[in-house]
Amino acid sequence: MATQKKHIEEIRRKKFSIGGNPNPLTEDLHHAVKNLSDELYTKDVHFLMELIQVFALN
Asked: The whole model's pTM is what?
Protein backbone atom coordinates (compact mmCIF):
# COMPACT_ATOMS: atom_id res chain seq x y z
CA MET A 1 0.00 0.00 0.00
CA ALA A 2 2.86 2.39 0.81
CA THR A 3 4.41 1.84 -2.63
CA GLN A 4 1.17 2.79 -4.40
CA LYS A 5 0.80 5.89 -2.26
CA LYS A 6 4.39 6.96 -2.98
CA HIS A 7 3.80 6.41 -6.69
CA ILE A 8 0.67 8.59 -6.63
CA GLU A 9 2.46 11.30 -4.64
CA GLU A 10 5.31 11.24 -7.16
CA ILE A 11 2.89 11.70 -10.07
CA ARG A 12 1.15 14.55 -8.26
CA ARG A 13 4.49 16.25 -7.58
CA LYS A 14 6.06 15.77 -11.01
CA LYS A 15 3.08 16.17 -13.30
CA PHE A 16 0.82 18.57 -11.42
CA SER A 17 3.23 20.34 -9.02
CA ILE A 18 1.08 19.36 -6.04
CA GLY A 19 2.89 19.03 -2.74
CA GLY A 20 6.30 19.83 -4.10
CA ASN A 21 8.21 22.64 -5.69
CA PRO A 22 5.96 24.57 -8.05
CA ASN A 23 6.79 24.29 -11.73
CA PRO A 24 7.65 27.80 -12.97
CA LEU A 25 6.13 27.03 -16.37
CA THR A 26 2.68 26.10 -15.04
CA GLU A 27 1.39 29.67 -15.00
CA ASP A 28 2.81 30.39 -18.47
CA LEU A 29 1.20 27.25 -19.84
CA HIS A 30 -2.14 28.20 -18.27
CA HIS A 31 -2.02 31.65 -19.89
CA ALA A 32 -0.99 30.20 -23.25
CA VAL A 33 -3.87 27.72 -23.29
CA LYS A 34 -6.34 30.42 -22.25
CA ASN A 35 -5.13 32.82 -24.95
CA LEU A 36 -5.23 30.11 -27.58
CA SER A 37 -8.75 29.06 -26.68
CA ASP A 38 -9.95 32.67 -26.53
CA GLU A 39 -8.53 33.49 -29.96
CA LEU A 40 -9.24 30.21 -31.70
CA TYR A 41 -13.00 30.32 -31.31
CA THR A 42 -13.81 34.00 -31.07
CA LYS A 43 -17.07 33.42 -32.91
CA ASP A 44 -19.59 30.67 -32.24
CA VAL A 45 -19.96 30.17 -35.99
CA HIS A 46 -16.29 29.26 -36.33
CA PHE A 47 -16.65 26.63 -33.61
CA LEU A 48 -19.71 25.16 -35.32
CA MET A 49 -17.97 25.04 -38.69
CA GLU A 50 -15.02 23.21 -37.12
CA LEU A 51 -17.39 20.78 -35.43
CA ILE A 52 -19.24 20.10 -38.70
CA GLN A 53 -15.93 19.58 -40.48
CA VAL A 54 -14.81 17.01 -37.90
CA PHE A 55 -18.00 15.02 -38.30
CA ALA A 56 -17.91 15.31 -42.08
CA LEU A 57 -14.43 13.76 -42.22
CA ASN A 58 -15.49 10.74 -40.16
From this structure: 0.41
